[in-house]
Amino acid sequence: MTPARSTTRLVLIPSYNPGRIVFETVSAALHQWNPVWVIVDGSTDGTAEGLQRIAAVDPALRVIVLTKNMGKGAAVLHGLDLAAQEGYTHALTMDSDGQHPAELIPAFMAASAAHPEAMVLGRPVFEASAPSLRVKGRMISNWWANLETLWVGVDDSLYGFRVYPIEALRSVMRNQPWMRRFDFDPEAVVRMCWHGVRPVNLPAPVKYLRPEEGGVSHFNYLRDNALLTWMHLRLFLEFLLRLPLLLLQRQRRPG
Ligand SMILES: Nc1nc2c(ncn2[C@@H]2O[C@H](COP(=O)(O)OP(=O)(O)O)[C@@H](O)[C@H]2O)c(=O)[nH]1
Ligand SMILES: [Mg+2]
Question: pTM of the full predicted structure?
Answer without folding.
Answer: 0.95
